[in-house]
Structures are given as structure tokens and as C-alpha cells.
Design brief:
Blueprint (H helix, E strand, L loop, with lengths): L1 H32 L3 H19 L4 H32 L1
Length: 92
Amino acid sequence: MKNNESSKILKFLAVIGFIAAVAAIAFAVYRFLTPDYLEDFEDDFDDDFDDYFEDEDESPVEEAAEKVSEAAEDFKEAVSDAAEDFKEAVTE
């Protein structure tokens, strides 16, 4: 009698395992065949996000850096001119 009961339990577990395997295969096929809508949404969002920042001019930091660079060039030219004037004054 014990052998008969274990045989029933084994058959029951085999059926449950078979159903689980079929469900796993069906889910895998479903995931493989369905399109990835989230990826499309993320691509569209990234495009919109990039467009938003492309419309803006330079950032305040870049503008400040450009102004400092221009001021440094102007200062360099002024010092060079002053040095030349000083040289001319000393040689006279």
C-alpha cells in the first residue's frame, strides 16, 4: 500500500512539474515575441530631453569662461603694449 501511495504522489508531482514547465516555456515565448514598448518610450524621452537642452544657448558657466578668456587675452595685449612703450621710453 505504501508503494501505491508514493506512486500517486510521484505522478501528481510529475503533472505539476509538467504544467510548470509548459507555463515557463509559454512565458518565455511571450516575452520574446512582445515588443519592448518601454525602450521606445525611453528613446523618445531621450530625444525630447536632448532637444530641450540643444535649444538653449551656452550655459552661464561657459559664457563666464568665454568672458574670462577674452579678458585674459585683452590683458595680455595691454601688458605687451605697455612693455613695448616702456622699452621705447627707456631706449630714448
